[in-house]
Design a protein that fits this description.
The chain is mainly beta. Helix content is 7%, strand content 40%. This is DUF3344 domain-containing protein.
């Protein structure tokens, strides 16, 4: 349901809507995609409190990786529950979701949805999609408790298309602790994205709580797409996912992305999806090790190296990303792409990623990388 502000609806009504919208609305299912890049059958959508990072897609091909992403909740700058500080936060000011009474973003014209957001997927001319995966996640406990049973399904619409129901096709990460009740789910959507191409994609009905709490409301989605293009550089493309919580007892996580060898001064990009980042709270870092020297901290003007998980959706080399809504501070959702050229200055025998935090608890969900290769 389209609304110019973040929704402030009675929580009892929303709980009913959450239970009924997907089951009774009669949305068609998304077209099936192949079992996976490795040909293995899909796992049932069970829940696990921790999912170690594993390779989801890996290929050496002429092409690259792109993504679209947006947050599902935000502060209210207008209407009931409006906060004067919200406008500054939306414009990129230092703020965290726990400072606000948070509401749903809802940009579509469908009266059956209560949260919906859009983002543009950009593909080069003559690119051919050969893998696409949709990730979504959120905090289920804020001013309300959302039922975990609804976490494994969302609505997904291609550019100019109608909603299709998408169901998680692998185990769902779900972990409660520190006042939050976090989850991440995902599904292969290769067939739909391959047929639809670039443009504005919409995701609705993410199972995310609204309101105010000491942890804050946060959630969002990221569509990760690998493509082939004959005249693009030969690259190693890799998508990894898991569900790892960082807190006072477990302050860092490392993921070894492996080889092949990468030439000195090669081009490369690294994408990260994380939850509960807080802009202005320093102490979280993203480092890459290559086997050819010390690790290199990643960061840029939008993501300082000492506050790298700072509630942003950025891409270091593409300029502003078209989204609806398009607030600079997402208040708890990170989907960022970083430049790897500095880390690859001396070449690499392998890529290893390490994410750490000193203060703010984080949940890490996705890593994706592309790097020019040599043999």
């Amino acid at each position: 349901m389209r609304n110019s502000v973040f929704l402030a609806v009675g929580r009892g009504v929303l709980c009913v809507l959450a239970a009924l919208t997907l089951s009774a609305a009669g949305y068609p299912a998304a077209p099936p995609s192949p079992a996976g890049a490795d040909g293995e059958p899909r796992a049932a959508a069970e829940e696990r409190s921790r999912i170690p990072f594993t390779r989801r897609f890996d290929a050496v091909q002429h092409g690259g990786i792109v993504r679209a992403a947006n947050a599902a909740v935000g502060c209210r700058a207008e209407g009931p529950g409006a906060d004067p500080a919200c406008a500054a936060a939306r414009d990129g000011g230092n703020a965290a979701g726990r400072q606000f009474d948070m509401g749903y973003a809802d940009v579509d014209d469908d009266p059956r949805t209560y949260n919906s957001t859009r983002a543009e997927l950009r593909l080069p001319d003559r690119a051919r999609v050969n893998y696409a995966r949709l990730y979504w996640g959120a905090n289920l406990r804020v001013g309300e408790q959302k039922p975990p049973a609804d976490s494994g399904r969302v609505l997904f619409a291609e550019p100019g298309g109608q909603y299709k129901e998408v169901l998680a096709d692998t185990p769902i990460g779900h972990r409660a602790g520190g006042g939050a009740d976090a989850f991440q789910a995902s599904a292969d959507v290769t067939a739909l994205v391959r047929d639809s191409g670039p443009g504005m994609y919409t995701v609705a009905q993410i199972n995310v709580a609204m309101g105010r709490s000491a942890v804050g409301a946060w959630g969002g989605w990221t569509l990760v797409v690998a493509y082939k293009k004959d005249d693009a550089p030969l690259r190693r493309l890799s998508v990894w996912d898991g569900f790892e919580a960082l807190d006072a007892r477990h302050r860092e996580v490392g993921v070894d992305l492996g080889g092949p060898r990468v030439a000195a001064r090669a081009g490369g990009r690294l994408g990260v999806v994380a939850y509960n980042g807080a802009r202005g709270v320093k102490g979280d870092a993203l480092a890459v090790e290559t086997g050819n020297g010390k690790g290199v901290l990643l960061g840029n003007k939008d993501n300082p190296s000492d506050d790298v998980m700072n509630s942003s959706i950025t891409d270091f080399d593409s300029g502003p990303i078209k989204r609806r809504p398009a607030y600079l501070n997402t208040l708890g959702y990170d989907s960022d792409v970083f430049d790897l050229r500095g880390a690859l200055a001396s070449g690499a025998d392998r890529l290893s990623v390490r994410i750490s935090t000193e203060k703010n608890p984080l949940w890490i969900g996705v890593l994706f990388a592309e790097a020019d290769v040599r043999y």
